Amino acid sequence: MIELRDLTKRYGGTTAVNRLTLTVRPGHVTGFLGPNGAGKSTTLRLVLGLHRPTSGTVTVDGTPFADRPRGLRHVGALLDAGDVHGGRSALAHLSALARSNGIPRARAEVVLREVGLADVARRRIGAFSLGMRQRLGIAAALLGDPPVLLFDEPFNGLDPEGVRWVRALFRRLAAEGRTVLVSSHLMSEMEQTADHLVVIGRGELIADESLAGFAARVGPAGVTVRTPDPAALTTVLRAEGGAVHAGADGSLVVGGLTAARIGDLAYAGGIPLHELAPHTVSLEEAFMDLTADRVDYPAGGRR
Ligand SMILES: Nc1ncnc2c1ncn2[C@@H]1O[C@H](COP(=O)(O)OP(=O)(O)OP(=O)(O)O)[C@@H](O)[C@H]1O
């Protein structure tokens, strides 16, 4: 379990993390979402004790991580896949990490097999593609068989097969009872990966809820209906409590009634329908709306 209490980090005049209070629980894949510059990487660095908080606390299973010797046995992390010695082989890199963390050297070969890099174990990391480096970073995170795992933008550079593999891996790690925290700036990546969401913007907590809860709250946006007799249909639907508004090209947009109910009411009233289309707000759209006023670098200028 990871616990943040009133966690704040300032760099000079920039507040990267602002009074963040949050518990990341075991047994779940928690998606850590926020637009660029929201403070995700800073938060992960604070969890790992790589940066010191300006104020507040962060603990991993009750203890500040920096106080733990042999850290990789407690927390595994993929932060920056490019941040490795390119001259070493993958096996040498992981063996060195294992040695300095009191982990049996044999684990290096086990995790290389697990991430699909066994065949290139003795090749220089400098010759690895970005996707291979991501896999190596994941192997390093798994090396100490830790109960808590942090992944910063783990999908970068992975091909579709790699993305599928990583998703399955995260689910398995969570099913084993581990705490899995995965950062991303794309809701579309998290939709099929996480079962819990934490959303931040400008260093502040915006949402902390299950993916299912978030999806239910976003809900269906309405039903687009087309009929040659909009006046009659509007009267019938409003009488049943529907909210009816004019849509594009003479269509009606109806809220508060399901498509099935609208169809039944039109049929009962003898009103022909030419279109009946429920539309949902995508989670990506909902996420963009949620964070719209906390985006530091909006395309086309600030909204
Ligand atoms: N070492 C640092 N010194 C000064 N400012 C920093 C430092 N690290 C981060 N920041 C600033 O803190 C804010 C949060 O940055 P951070 O990298 O944590 O965001 P992020 O959510 O991970 O963004 P991204 O998705 O772009 O990686 C930004 O405004 C960034 O410029």
SSE map:
Blueprint: E1 2-11, E2 14-24, E3 29-33, H1 40-47, E4 55-60, E5 75-78, H2 90-100, H3 106-114, H4 130-142, E6 148-152, H5 160-175, E7 179-184, H6 187-191, E8 196-201, E9 204-210, H7 211-218, E10 220-226, H8 230-239, E11 243-246, E12 252-255, H9 259-268, E13 275-280, H10 283-291
Parallel strand pairs: 3-7, 3-8, 5-6, 6-7
Antiparallel strand pairs: 1-2, 1-4, 8-9, 10-12, 10-13, 11-12
Bound molecules: adenosine-5'-triphosphate (ATP).
Would you write up a description of this structure?
This protein has 303 residues and is α/β, with parallel strands linked by helices. It has two domains: 2-216, P-loop containing nucleotide triphosphate hydrolases (Rossmann fold); 220-280, Alpha-Beta Plaits. It is built from ten helices and 13 strands. It has helices at residues 40-47, 90-100, 106-114, 130-142, 160-175, 187-191, 211-218, 230-239, 259-268, 283-291; strands spanning 2-11, 14-24, 29-33, 55-60, 75-78, 148-152, 179-184, 196-201, 204-210, 220-226, 243-246, 252-255, 275-280. The strands form three sheets. A six-stranded mixed β-sheet has the order 5-6-7-3-8-9, with helices on both faces. Strands 11-12-10-13 form a four-stranded antiparallel β-sheet, covered by helices on one side. A three-stranded antiparallel β-sheet has the order 2-1-4, covered by helices on one side. Helix 2 (90-100) crosses helix 3 and helix 3 (106-114) packs across helix 4 (130-142). The radius of gyration is 24 Å and the shape is elongated. The two termini are 37 Å apart. The site of adenosine-5'-triphosphate has 12 residues, from strand 2 and helix 1. Adenosine-5'-triphosphate binds next to strand 2 and helix 1.
